[in-house]
From TrEMBL:
SMART domains: AAA. InterPro entries: AAA+_ATPase, ABC_carbohydrate_import_ATPase, ABC_transporter-like_ATP-bd, ABC_transporter-like_CS, P-loop_NTPase. It is found in: Cell membrane. It is a peripheral membrane protein. Involved in beta-(1-->2)glucan export. Transmembrane domains (TMD) form a pore in the inner membrane and the ATP-binding domain (NBD) is responsible for energy generation. Belongs to the ABC transporter superfamily. This is Sugar ABC transporter ATP-binding protein. Residues 9-245, 263-499 form the ABC transporter domain.
């Protein structure tokens, strides 16, 4: 940071808790006019929370906020906005039912003397702004009809051109294509020249190093490093992010783990040059019987689209799939299931019914497999009892409402559905997200059992720990392309992050 310049924004000793959980602890942070300040840190490190304090979203915290040297306490996001602070949130916060133009001018529409919205002017100006940002879209189209990446770009454009003096971008590039990222960076640099202060949060450390002047690193709610971008490296930042030493209770995967020799058992799934506009490019891989293939990447890397294609919910633009050597064209989830593919989606809640007893939850997949054949409740219960036994679901009570079970046991129920008629290929999306250590270990053990039964298993996750704890072989997906495969070699959290 250049000496002697007055920060446009200064935070002193910020501490913030949610319930009993401390999200930030004693954080100092300063932002200079005409500076692009990068923030990095693992998921949950506290980056978004700090930014939401600046943007007036979180109003209860301890510590001081100074704007132009003046102590300030925003009571709302509107207050912060009035003070010239604008933020692109990690979660899209556009209004899908409004037009593109209305979204660009959200809460700020041009009106005439009678207070009526000047539609034509609004559409023209919105179109001009977006064009300056390289976005070619009809300003009168409904925003929700556009692809997510484009919606994200429009939201970014809205914030960048709002005239704010402080602009915060919280992981804005996850759904953007490389040329869109380039255009964003050109615009950020132009704003910097005009004296705007910018905070840029991203998982893509190369991007942070390329565009920002200063980088701050968060770990476990604390600021652990601040440095000029020119004076650091990707490796040094990753090391600061994940920390070293035995501070973590769980296995932290900071040391190398040796992946086994690749399996030479039969290929269950072969994916060849799968492509999908904006999401996947020429993705090819094989999944083998008795092997767990991990697919790791940041949010928006294409994992979700890939899993949807494998389960027949999304049609690829190009590429082929083969199961057991037979080419498949999955036109529906039923077709995928008939071919022996089972998917446990990210939100296992989407497939589980908390108000229904455990046995119903287990039998539901059976019912829709043989829908013409109605199972008697006694049969359903018998099948469920067998599964409860096999997977050691606790408590072992078939009639208990699912909602009464712990997360790990619910996950077992989700798996039990598939084991009644074991699939050839099991696709697990974020199988341990949000679980405590005990539940995670349960899931790890189940996956190992299924592998031993000879299933081909694919684990898709944005958490390095998840793939490291489960996978025999790991692919890294970056912006829709496979950029690295780890097999029969040492791998660790920092090697994965480095590759992504
Ligand atoms: N609204 C909230 N309610 C409860 N806990 C929250 C909330 N927002 C964030 N947290 C918790 O605060 C911590 C920091 O989260 P966050 O600031 O989102 O991290 P990051 O943006 O670095 O991934 C996490 O433990 C998260 O679970
Ligand atoms: Mg965040």
């Amino acid at each position: 940071m250049p000496e002697g310049q007055q920060p446009i924004l200064e935070l002193q000793g910020i501490t913030k808790s949610f319930g009993g959980v401390e999200a930030l602890r004693g954080v100092d942070f300063a932002l200079l006019p005409g500076e692009i300040h990068g923030l990095v840190g693992e998921n949950g490190a506290g980056k978004s929370t700090l930014m939401k304090i600046i943007a007036g979203v979180h109003t209860e915290f301890s510590g001081r906020v100074l704007i132009d040297g003046q102590a300030t306490h925003f009571r709302s996001a509107r207050d912060a906005h009035a003070a010239g602070i604008a933020m692109v949130h990690q979660e899209l916060s556009v209004a899908p039912d409004l037009t593109v133009a209305e979204n660009v001018f959200l809460g700020n529409q041009p009106t005439n003397r009678l207070g009526l919205v000047q539609w034509r002017r609004m559409a023209r100006e919105a179109g001009e702004q977006l064009a300056r940002f390289g976005i070619d879209v009809d300003p009168m189209s409904r925003l929700g009809d556009l692809p997510i990446g484009l919606q994200q770009l429009i939201e970014i454009a809205r914030v960048l051109f709002s005239g704010a003096r402080i602009v915060i971008l919280d992981e804005p590039t996850s759904a953007l294509s490389p040329p869109e990222v380039e255009r964003l960076f050109v615009t950020l640099k132009r704003l910097r020249e005009q004296g705007t202060a910018i905070v840029f949060i991203s998982h893509f450390i190369e991007d942070i190093l390329r565009v920002s002047d200063t980088v701050t690193v968060f770990r476990n709610g604390r600021k652990v490093a601040e440095t000029a971008s020119a004076a650091t490296s990707k490796g040094a930042l990753i090391e600061a992010m994940i920390g070293r030493g035995g501070e973590a209770l769980e296995h932290s995967y900071t040391d190398d783990l040796m992946l086994p020799r690749p399996s030479d058992s039969s290929v269950v799934l072969k994916v060849d040059k799968l492509s999908l506009a904006r999401s996947l490019q020429d993705v090819s891989f094989e999944a083998r019987a008795g092997e767990v293939l991990g697919i790791y990447g940041f949010m928006g890397c294409g994992q979700q689209e890939l899993s949807r294609i494998l389960f027949g919910k999304l049609k690829p633009d190009a590429g082929t799939l083969a199961v057991d050597g037979t080419p498949k064209r999955f036109t529906s989830t039923a077709a995928a299931r008939r071919a022996g593919v089972a998917l446990v989606p990210e939100s296992r809640r989407a497939m589980l019914f908390h108000q229904e007893p455990v046995y119903k939850n287990i039998s539901i997949s059976i019912l829709d497999r043989i829908s013409s054949l109605l199972l008697k409740p006694a049969q359903e219960r018998d099948i469920a009892k067998h599964q409860i036994d096999q997977l050691q679901i606790r408590p072992p009570v078939v009639g208990l409402d699912l909602g009464m079970l712990s997360g790990g046991n619910q996950q077992k129920v989700a798996l039990a559905k598939w084991l009644t008629y074991p699939p050839k290929l099991l696709v697990l999306c974020e199988p341990t997200r949000g679980m405590d250590v005990g539940a995670k270990n349960d899931v790890i053990n189940i996956v190992r059992d299924l592998r031993a039964m000879g299933l081909a298993i694919i684990v898709l996750s944005t958490e390095p720990e998840t793939v490291l704890s489960l996978a025999d072989r790991i692919l890294v997906l970056k912006r829709g392309a496979v950029v690295r495969e780890f097999r029969n070699e040492p791998v660790s959290k920092d090697r994965l992050l480095e590759a992504a």
